[in-house]
Design a protein that fits this description.
Structural class: mainly alpha
Shape: elongated
Distance between the termini: 60 Å
Number of strands: 0
Helix content: over 70%
Largest sheet: none
Length: 108
């Protein structure tokens, strides 16, 4: 691993350990570091700013309550991005599954 990547990975692992200990400052730092990227990912999938914000919030909630699922094989940012992608896709799927009956009646 190049030095910069190794250093970032070590920093991620230290930050993750702080998260596991319940360090609120570590959680705030994680959100500051990754918020913009996660929001852009969710916005790209959902096409809506508000939905993207909610998806990112739910992704953080899911991540912070599932810290035992992080194995450290990828960076913390990659793990969070995957969670945000899954949350955004879940929301997009729910949105597609809902059909407005008035729209359906108008199209018939």
């Amino acid at each position: 691993m190049p030095d910069g990547i190794a250093s970032a990975h070590a920093d991620d692992l230290a930050l993750f350990q702080d998260l596991r200990r319940g360090d609120h400052a570590a959680a705030a730092l994680v959100m500051r570091r990754h918020n913009r990227t996660l929001w852009r990912i969710a916005r790209g999938i959902l096409g809506d700013d508000g939905e993207a914000e909610e998806a990112v919030q739910d992704a953080y909630l899911r991540a912070f309550t599932s810290l035992d699922a992080f194995r450290g094989e990828s960076s913390l940012g990659t793990w969070l991005a995957r969670i945000a992608i899954n949350e955004a896709l879940r929301r997009a799927q729910r949105r597609r599954a809902t059909v407005d009956l008035d729209e359906l009646a108008d199209s018939l």
